[in-house]
TrEMBL record:
Keywords: Membrane, Transmembrane, Transmembrane helix, Transport. This is OCA2 melanosomal transmembrane protein. InterPro entries: Cit_transptr-like_dom (IPR004680), Diverse_Ion_Transporter (IPR051475). The gene is OCA2. Its main location: membrane. It is found in: Membrane. It holds the Pfam family CitMHS. It comes from Athene cunicularia. It is a multi-pass membrane protein.
Length: 712
């Protein structure tokens, strides 16, 4: 980094050979002077500290840790059994004490993605119970629950299904399992049961409180969003332990989606090496030249290109490639990168909804075998969604311009002052990351803080010299283009060729993975192999420099978020949302049921995807909507419900900062470059865009399915 004060030098003897006490005094002096120049955001943290918020968080984390530690892992073992039409399996349960729920896990050759559907071959599980054993007159056992599980033709294919039953009274519970087969034979099964100490309503209430608490921590910026997700995960795991469903370490690790983490890590390494070539600076100048100096034309082109690319690539990959280019472009033009990045990520999420491979919820829908049998394949899904998303994009651009009408995209200070402020931020951040565990590290931190103080003095002089003025759009853009082209060039053409070759192969494999069935590599594997390949070709010696550019906080946030969402799913929060949605649809009169169902599914999916991960929500809602469409009393077509789910789940990610993976990735990279934006900054722009885009998508679905009747 270029120094603004070249005369700033340090004497080696004074810097390194002084006593430890002298370094401590210098460090304390630097800390005191730095504290005088803190911004309003740091004052907010001081107020929160005075209110003992962080102290209370520390007490709560210790409390949850103790609760999680005192409840043991149940370690329930599986029971192997075999049933046939002539021989059933029965067992009695009397040791449930004051438990409220009975959780039953059954593994066998069941049909995937189908719930409670009668088939030619199926397994029937009956849960019956008698009155309390203390009563004098004992009644006959009564069947309380019937659970039907269709069998697959592939009897060596094992699928584990789980269901939770409420225990009505204190009487003995009887479990009877029987097979209904067209041909003689037996079916091997595995089973385990577990008692839970809280009913579903209590679990859903606690899960909702935990989710709201996590959002409060993120919205108020009391702690970093990564720590907020970790605290939420700890609270959810402690709740599961209290309920009686404490997971083991192996189960918790399995909840993490390692394919997503591998995709993020691999692409971060690729982008880190790519940035060494000067390619991002070159692209920034070319984009400025193509827009002919008009800022809004440039922003529109960036958003449109991001939307088109995310329709065929994963939107996370799109933002990993676009964010560095956008930040460098805004630095060149003295623009505030935050507003441009938020606009880009919004249109990335919109564009990803257009095809079957652009967003994870769409991939889950198209991969469902039951939906594929109904004719909802890649072409049918993409053809239907593409038309609606095109309408959404056409309306979203003018609305985005309206939202940005009074926002100053240009920085209010001259570019020299903006760069100096950013340099001070980077130096201070570097000093804060040094843990003074030794004399040398203390000395280095002292020198860095002295550097910060020197730059702050220089900044005050420049602020007194320059008058604050708002920059206008550059009228002499042709002259500036020539200067920018001389300043921002490709620095390493050989490395650029290697990077373009590897990145081109990675993107090509991403496309082929979606269409060619013979490729047995997931997106995470492709990104990791590409990163390893480029590390070898680029002959990277300073490996730690590349690792320092990886967004470890973002990766840890996703890992904690995956655990949090899976724990909330075990607390029945997601199932409860789906069941309540289905109940609301059933009570609507039949002539208005389809329109109400579309409206309800779109908005429930959008709002739910804004606050929870849309991947488990989509996976949970698919069987709910399938059963709803098969119910003869409801009489609803299947495709409008599924398209409503896809529209709401994809567009709802724009509602909050953690509503979509691309949002978090973009915020993490921007924060690493010194341009991080808060939850509320994203919410002020993202939530209105989500409301407008979901409204347009809902209107399109209503016209297509209610008015036109495009349900076949």
């Amino acid at each position: 980094m270029a120094l603004h004060n070249p005369d700033f030098t340090t004497d080696d003897d004074d810097s390194w050979d002084n006593s430890s006490a002298e370094f401590e005094q210098r460090f304390q002096l630097g800390s005191e002077m730095t504290s005088l120049s803190r911004s309003a955001s740091s004052e907010k943290y001081e107020i929160l500290d005075n209110l003992h918020v962080k102290f209370n968080l520390s007490k709560m984390s210790r409390y949850f840790s103790i609760l999680f530690g005192i409840y043991p892992d149940q370690g329930v073992s599986w029971q192997m059994l075999a049933v046939s039409p002539l021989e059933s399996f029965s067992m009695n349960l009397t040791d449930f004490h004051d438990s409220a729920l009975l959780k039953l896990d059954i593994g066998g050759p069941f049909v995937a993605d189908v719930v409670d559907q009668q088939a030619e071959d199926y397994i029937l599980v009956q849960i019956s119970q008698t009155e309390d054993a203390g009563s004098r007159r004992r009644r006959q056992q009564q069947v309380v629950y019937n659970w039907s599980l269709p069998l697959s033709s592939r009897r060596n294919h094992q699928i584990i299904t789980t269901r939770t039953f409420q225990i009505p009274n204190r009487g003995t519970i009887f479990i009877n399992i029987q097979a209904f087969l067209q041909e003689p034979g037996s079916v091997p099964l595995s089973m385990k049961h577990q008692y839970l100490h809280a009913n579903i309503e209590a679990q859903v209430t606690i899960a909702s409180i935990i989710l709201v608490g996590v959002y409060v921590l993120i919205i108020l910026e009391i702690v970093h969003r990564t720590l907020a997700a970790m605290l939420g995960s700890l609270a959810a795991l402690a709740t599961l332990a209290i309920v009686g469903e404490r997971p083991s370490m192996v189960e918790v690790v399995e909840w993490i989606d390692y394919e997503t983490l591998a995709l993020l890590f691999g692409m971060m390494v690729l982008v880190a090496i790519f940035s060494e070539t000067g390619f991002f600076d070159y692209c920034a100048v070319k984009a400025y030249r193509f827009s002919r100096g008009k800022v809004w034309a440039m922003i529109t082109l960036l958003c449109l290109f991001a939307a088109i690319l995310s329709a065929f690539l994963d939107n996370v990959t799109t933002m990993l490639l676009f964010t560095p280019v956008t930040i460098r472009l805004c630095e060149v033009l003295n623009l505030d990168p935050r507003h441009v990045l938020i606009a880009e990520v919004i249109f990335t999420n919109i564009g990803g909804a257009a095809t079957a491979v652009g967003d994870p919820p769409n991939v889950i829908i198209v991969s469902n075998q039951e939906l594929r049998k109904k004719g909802l394949d890649f072409a049918a899904f993409t053809g239907h969604m593409f038309v609606g998303i095109c309408l959404v994009v056409l309306v979203s651009f003018p609305f985005l311009r309206l939202l940005y009408w009074n926002k100053k995209l240009y920085n209010k200070e001259p570019s020299e002052i903006v760069e100096l402020k950013h340099e001070i931020y980077v130096w201070r951040l570097t000093a804060q990351r040094i843990n003074p565990a030794s004399r040398e590290e203390t000395a280095v931190k002292c020198l860095l803080m002295q550097k910060v103080l020197t730059l702050e003095m220089l900044l005050r002089k420049k602020l007194r010299t320059f008058h604050r003025q708002i920059s206008q759009e550059d009228k002499n853009w042709e002259t500036n283009i020539q200067e920018l082209q001389k300043k921002h060039r490709i620095t390493d053409k050989i490395l650029l060729i290697k990077c373009l070759t590897v990145l081109g192969c990675v993107i090509l494999m991403f496309f082929l993975n979606s269409f060619v069935p013979g490729i047995y590599l997931d997106l995470g594997w492709i990104a990791m192999l590409g990163a390893i390949w480029l590390l070898v070709l680029a002959d990277i010696h300073d490996f730690e420099m590349i690792l320092n550019r990886v967004e470890w906080a973002t990766l840890l946030f996703f890992a904690a978020l995956f655990i949090l969402m899976e724990a909330l799913a075990h607390l029945h929060l997601i199932d409860y949302i789906g069941e309540q949605t289905a109940l609301l649809i059933k009570v609507v009169p039949e002539d208005q049921r389809l329109a109400v169902a579309i409206i309800l599914v779109v908005w429930v999916s959008a709002l739910a995807s804004s606050v929870i991960d849309n991947i488990p929500f989509t996976a949970t809602m698919i069987p709910v909507l399938l059963n709803l469409s098969k119910d003869p009393d409801v009489n609803l077509p299947m495709k409008p419900l599924i398209f409503s789910l896809a529209m709401g789940a994809c567009l709802g990610g724009n509602g909050t900062l953690i509503g979509a993976s691309a949002n978090v990735v973009c915020a993490g990279i921007a924060e690493q470059h010194g341009y991080g934006f808060s939850f509320m900054e994203f919410f002020r722009l993202g939530f209105p865009m989500m409301v407008v885009s979901c409204t347009i998508g809902m209107c399109y679905l209503l016209v297509a399915h209610v008015v036109v009747g495009w349900n076949s």
